[in-house]
Amino acid sequence: MYTFNAAVQILRDNSAVISVFVLKTKPKPKKIRSMFQLYLSNSLVNQLLINDSKYIGQLLDSWFEKEEDKKSIQNSKEWLNLYPDLNTKDKLAKHLSISKRHL
Length: 103
Hints:
Largest sheet: none
Distance between the termini: 38 Å
Structural class: mainly alpha
Number of helices: 5
Helix content: 40-55%
Oligomer: single chain
Number of strands: 0
Order of helices and strands: HHHHH
Radius of gyration: 16 Å
């Protein structure tokens, strides 16, 4: 609640909009990680704010863990929980209309 109150004080005289998660109880670290992965990756996958495949690949590699037995993060449980239809680099690249070379 403190963080929300601080944000309200900072933005009181500003027309900026902020996103807020309101939860009844403190989530487990794994759930927190999943919420932030969704929040961060949504701007890349659904809002199409960045079109540089190398930069997108670097961001996704830093946000998602590649499982040892998988070829890419698009096959990891973390990724598939958020984007089950984008389970290959080809599908992700086609969705983003970019080259799959650096993904």
